[in-house]
Amino acid sequence: MAKKKKSAPAPLVVPTTSYASQNGHGGAKKAHKTRDSDCCSINFVKYVLHIFNIIFFMSGLVIIGVTVWTVLWKHHYVSLLSTTNYAIGTYSLLAAGLLAVLGGILGCCGVWREQRALLLGYTFILLFVFLLEAIVGGLAYLYETQIELELQTSLNSTFMEQYGVSERQTEAIDRMQQEFGCCGAVRFEDWRHSVWLRSRRKDLIRPTEGRLVPDSCCISVTPRCGRSDRPSNIPYTGCIYKMADDLKHHLILLGAIGLGICVIQVFGMILSCCLYVKLKNVLD
């Protein structure tokens, strides 16, 4: 009788668990971050950025106000300067103020609607205004140290050669002498060597008619009061140093506004970038 052949034992099956399954990922789709993920929620960043936008908008209005006042009240003296640094700095800061107002409005819309395109444009405006204000502020402080030397080299020749010849510069000199209570560039005797007094031309914008100094030199301006150069009638101090002091104070103000406000905008750029990244993680 033949022996019955033994069958081979069945293989042992050991259940395996993948690393991905053990870690809860498997084939499932990666979960999005929520609005409250990380250290700060989206709503918190939006709230802080809204506060910043209000400050940014108001700073733009302040810049516009200061620069418009500068243009209205100081533009008469620009023709007396040998360079355009003062005018360029003023108008550049005015452009920064207008962009700040526009950026504040754009930022509020971007934050309110949570639109990343608006936030990106807002961030670039912040960066551009930051650079513009930093450059203008730095140049204002640099120019403040040079303004007196520039006036000494240019204003004296303007008084001597252009008064009575150029209408724009004649009006600027008259306005300066009345506003600052001064006479001449360095001293009142400067007028004795001027084209206005020595040429005796009859086609001058301000005829001499026996005057020793322009009527704008007089403490109390009346017709032909410039025929007397006594100290009771005219100031003996020149205009260079008084105008230099006035422009220095104004340049310091423009520099402080430009540099001070541009520092604040660093926080705005950080907040807007933070909100942009958070919205990207939630919406993508």
Can you give keywords for this protein?
0% strand, 8 helices, disordered N terminus, Cd81 Antigen, Extracellular Domain, Chain: A, rod-shaped
Fold and architecture overview:
- This protein is mainly α and 284 residues long.
- The protein folds into two domains: 141 residues; 95 residues, Tetraspanin (Cd81 Antigen, Extracellular Domain, Chain: A, Orthogonal Bundle).
- It is 61% helix and 0% strand.
- The protein contains eight helices and no strands.
- Helix 3 packs antiparallel against helix 4, helix 3 packs parallel to helix 8 and helix 5 crosses helix 8.
- The longest helix is centred in the C-terminal third of the chain and has 44 residues.
- The radius of gyration is 36 Å and the shape is rod-shaped.
- It starts with 18 loop residues before the first helix and ends with a helix.
- The N terminus is likely disordered.
